[in-house]
Amino acid sequence: MSKQDYFAHPTAVIDQPCQIGTGTRIWHFSHIMAHSIIGRNCNLGQNVYIAPHVEIGENVKIQNNVSLYTGVILEDDVFCGPSAVFTNVINPRSHISRKHEFKTTRVGKGTTIGANSTIICGITIGTYAFIGAGAVVTKDVSPYALMYGNPAELKGWMCSCGNKLTFSVDSSEEKSVCSFCNAEYIKRGWRVEPKS
Q1: Distance from C-alpha of 42 to C-alpha of 164, rounded to nearest angstrom
Q2: What is the rounded average pLDDT for all residues in the chain?
Q3: pTM for this entry
Q4: How far is CA 91 from CA 55, 88, 99, 117, in A?
Q5: Where are the domains of the chain?
Q6: What is the C-alpha separation between 132 and 153, in angstroms, rounded?
Q7: Domain 3-161 is classified in which CATH homologous superfamily?
Q8: CB 165: neighbour CB atoms within 10 A?
C-alpha cells in the first residue's frame, strides 16, 4: 500500500510488512508493528501501540495512550477511550516467557471502551456493548450491555447509537424504543437484540 493512502505523523513508527487501510490517520509517537492489520478510515491518537498480528476493523477510533497487544481483535466501529488497557497473558511473570499462551480478546462491532478501563485477556465483548470509564472487565460481555465498576458488572443496556435503553414488559416480552433514534429492541433473559 502506498504511503499516500493513509496519513502518518512524521514521529510515528510503522514497521513493515503491515496493512493500513485507506483514509486512516496515525498521530504523534504511535508505533505500528509488523504483521498488524488496520482497516480503512481509522484514527489512532498520540502514543498508540499496535503489536504484531493485532487486527483492527474499519472506522475504529483509538484515543491517546492505548496499547493493543498480540491477540486483540477490534471489529468495525469500535471506540477505545484514552489510556484503555488490554492484556494478553493471564499470569505474567518477567522471568517466564508465555508468548505461546497469548489469549485472544475480541471486541465486537460498535463497542465503546471507556477511558482508563482494563480488559482482561481471553474474553469476548459483544456488539455495541458500552464499557464505562475505569471499568475492569474480567468476563465475556453480552451485546448492547452497559458495564462498569471493578470488577465490571451489568448496569443496563445501550442502543447502538449510545443512548441508554429502558425496558418495559409488553405481554410476554420486554421491549424498548430508544428515546434518541427510535430503534426498537427486545430483551429475552440476559440478551438484548434489535427488533426484526
Answers
A1: 26
A2: 95
A3: 0.94
A4: 23, 9, 11, 19
A5: 3-161
A6: 10
A7: Hexapeptide repeat proteins (2.160.10.10)
A8: 21
